[in-house]
């Protein structure tokens, strides 16, 4: 003798519960994927930020004695950000300030958009101004040296004249002896 057989019957409420479970399971899978993707994106942003900062600090140390950046050709920068885009390096001079900007295009791989990651450094130098100042200082120093030499020569002449008897004084003395 066989025992009773259970027959699954579907009711409208049961179908709804199963559909709800399936949708919840799908949502959980999508959410886990999204959270994993978001954490990966944040990790890439953190890596790109550190990379851009490091390159900025490295290039900022490369200056002449006058504080002028030793410019690196952008073609020589072979570093790419976590999304595979080459980093951008831009130098600009304005008055006595020079600026260095290193930029990652960010997740969208396009420069000058809201998701760019950038770092800036700046230096103050007298590029352009320095040559004029240097010429002025040289001219002033030369004039001062020339004036010092003229004054010294004049002073020595006067001192010698005070010490040595003058010709007219010698003539007067000889006349007195006669």
Provide structural commentary:
The chain has helices spanning 12-60, 129-163, 167-177, and strands at 88-94, 97-104, 117-124. With 178 residues, the protein is α+β, with helices and mostly antiparallel strands. It folds into two domains: 12-126, Glycoprotein, Type 4 Pilin (2-Layer Sandwich), CATH 3.30.700; 132-173. The chain has a three-stranded antiparallel beta sheet, with helices on one face. The radius of gyration is 43 Å and the shape is rod-shaped. The relative contact order is 0.08.
List the helices and strands and how they pair.
Blueprint (H helix, E strand, L loop, with lengths): L11 H49 L27 E7 L2 E8 L12 E8 L4 H35 L3 H11 L1
Antiparallel strand pairs: 1-2, 2-3
């Amino acid at each position: 003798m066989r025992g009773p057989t259970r027959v699954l019957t579907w009711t409208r409420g049961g179908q709804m519960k199963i559909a709800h479970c399936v949708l919840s399971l799908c949502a959980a899978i999508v959410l886990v994927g999204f959270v994993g993707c978001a954490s990966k994106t944040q990790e890439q942003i953190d890596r790109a930020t550190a990379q851009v900062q490091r390159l900025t600090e490295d290039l900022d140390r490369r200056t002449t004695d006058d504080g002028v950046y030793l410019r690196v050709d952008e073609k020589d920068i072979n570093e790419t950000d976590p999304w595979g885009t080459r980093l951008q390096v831009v130098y600009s001079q304005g008055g006595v300030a020079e600026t260095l900007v290193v930029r990652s295009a960010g997740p969208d791989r396009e420069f000058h958009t809201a998701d760019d990651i950038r770092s800036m450094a700046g230096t103050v130098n007298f590029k352009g101004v320095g040559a004029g100042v240097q010429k002025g200082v040289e001219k002033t120093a030369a004039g001062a040296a020339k004036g010092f030499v003229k004054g010294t020569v004049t002073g020595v002449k006067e001192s010698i004249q005070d010490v040595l008897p003058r010709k007219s004084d010698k003539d007067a003395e000889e006349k007195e002896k006669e």
